[in-house]
From TrEMBL:
GO MF terms, alphabetically ordered: NAD+ poly-ADP-ribosyltransferase activity; tRNA 2'-phosphotransferase activity
Name this polypeptide is given: Probable RNA 2'-phosphotransferase
GO biological process: tRNA splicing, via endonucleolytic cleavage and ligation
One Pfam family, short name: PTS_2-RNA
Function: Removes the 2'-phosphate from RNA via an intermediate in which the phosphate is ADP-ribosylated by NAD followed by a presumed transesterification to release the RNA and generate ADP-ribose 1''-2''-cyclic phosphate (APPR>P). May function as an ADP-ribosylase.
Gene name, Swiss-Prot/TrEMBL: kptA
Top EC class, one word: transferase
Amino acid sequence: MDERRTVKVSKYLSKHLRHQPERIGLVLDEGGWVEIDTLIAAATAHGFRFTREELDHVVAANDKKRFAIEGTRIRASQGHSVEVDLGLPPATPPPYLYHGTVDRNLDAIRSEGLRPMNRHDVHLSADRETATRVGARRGRPVVLSVDTGAMHRDGHVFHVSANGVWLTKGVPPQYLRFPEPH
């Protein structure tokens, strides 16, 4: 399977397992799971064909581990804008986590902190390199440090997804450390 096809199938899965399952007639269960055969049949019925082998390749090859397979079911690991309960237990974060963004968002972040926007949670990375890659999707990346140790002590709840992304409902500005301007 070539790289272009892998990306195309991955984007299709993200769209329909995270944001618009109803667009192709899917109904996710409360945990975000759907039967793989149901997904493939729905995609085919809506003009996007892929095989189980292609699906398995996309899941295995995705460096961010965006999808999880359990038995005969699949779901997105996190990043949903539709209502799901991933069933993740609260977790104690490391003292600092990181968030990748771009310059144009910094004024709003300084005043409002990090908000989930159209998702359920704010996504934080365990290392600067990952946060840099996340920010780079929107332009020249800016990496913010998040004092998650202080947030946790102050009662904020964290979860960690199966693929290592840290999730929290929001990050108030006082917990953010901004890089020095260039």
